[in-house]
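Input.
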Amino acid sequence: MQTKYILDEKDIPKKWYNILSEMPNKPHPPLHPGTIKPIGPEDLAPLFPMALIEQEVSLEKYIDIPEEVLNILTMWRPTPLYRAHRLEKAIGTKSKIYYKYEGTSPAGSHKPNTAVAQAYYNKKEGVKKLSTETGAGQWGSSLALAGSLFGLEVKVYMVKVSYEQKPYRRALMEAWGANVVPSPTTETQAGRSILEKDPNSQGSLGIAISEAVEVAAQNADTKYSLGSVLNHVLHHQTIIGEECIKQMQMTGDYPDVVIASAGGGSNFAGIAFPFLREKIAGKNIKIVAVEPTACPTLTKGEFSYDFGDTVGLTPLVKMYTLGHDFMPPGIHAGGLRYHGMAPIVSQLYHDSLIEALSLEQAKIFEGASIFAKNEGIIPAPESAHAVQGAIEEAKKADEEGKTKTILFNLSGHGHFDMSAYTQYFSGKLEDSTLSEIKLKESLSSLPVV
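Output.
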C-alpha cells in the first residue's frame, strides 16, 4: 500500500531525451513566411540563442543537461510519483492509478523545467532581457523565477482574460521581478493592430506571442522565450518521463496507459516521450493527450502549415491547428487555449502513435473535485484534464472487465485558480464547445503553402 515513490537527487536524469532521433516520420521543416522555403539558423538568431537553435534541429538521441541547470533543478527535483489509492477507492475502479506531481516546483507547475534551461543558455550568450507570453500564468511565473535566478530582465505579455482572472499569478511574476502587462497592448504594432479591429479584445496566446516576438526582433539585447510547442522546450520536459520510468520500476508496475493534458504539448511531451521511446521499441502502451472542447486542436484541427502567432511574425510550421486567427473562449484552463499543437506532437498524432480526447470544462472540474477530496491536491484547470482523462480510462477498463495500470501527469496545482473552482461550486461555470461554423471560419485563414 505504498503511496509515494521518491528518487534521490543523485537519480535526477543527466540528459534530455530527443524523440526526433527515433520518430518513424520527422516533422515537416518550418518555412520562412516570405520565401516559403525551409528556415535556417540565421532566421532564428534574432529570437533565440544559438545553443537553443542547435537543440531545435538536433537529431542526437540525448542532450546533456548543464551542471548549472541541474543544480537549480534540485530545488524541486526529483518530483514525487504517487499511487492514487484513495482516488481508486472513490471511483470504485479495479485499475491502478499513478500520477507524477509537478506542482512541487516554486512556480507550482512543470514549466520551470525548461524556463531554467532557457534562461541559462540566454545568460551564457550575453542576453540581458527576455520577452515572452503567458496564458494562465504558469509559464510567465516560471520564466520570471528563472530570470531572477540568472539576473535577466523578463517582460511578460499575459493574455488579458487571464490577467483579469488570475491576479495572484500576476503578483507572483512581479514578486520575482517580471514586468507583466495585459495583452493585447498599445506597446507593439501587433497589439495595436488587434485593438484597432477589436478594442475590447480579451486576447489570446497567439496575440501575446506576436507582441513578445516583435519586441525581441526589434531589440538587440532581448531574446524571445517560449514555454511550449518548440522542439527544444519539449526536450527539456522529458526529465519528467525519465524520472517516471525509474519510479515505475520501484512500484513493480508498468503503465498500460499514459495520459497528460495538451495545449501546446510541453507537459504531455514531458511524460509521454520517454514512454513513446519504449512504445517505438515494441512496448504496448496507449498514450493519450487530453484537451478542452473549447480549443480542440488535435481532435478537430487541420494538419497544415500555419503561423504560430496571430499577426504572422513567426515561421510557418506544419501542425494541427484551428487557424492562427482563432479566438478561444475565456475558459479557465488558460494554458490550453492555443490554436496550434507542437509539430512533434502533431506528427506523432498524425502517425497514430498517440491518441487524443477532448473534454468539457464542467467535466474536468468534476474530476478535479473528486481528486482533491481524495488525494488532497487541488489540480490546476489544465492538469484537471489529465485527471478526468485518467478517471474515464479507469471506468472504461472496468466496463470492459479489464484491470489496467494508468499513469498521468499532474502538471501543476490550482492554488491561483480558486476563482474557477468557486464558479464551479456555485454552478456558474459554463461549458464551451467549438462549433463547426466557427471552426470553418477560423480554418479559412490558413496560409496557402
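The chain has two domains: 48-65+111-231, 76-108+237-443.
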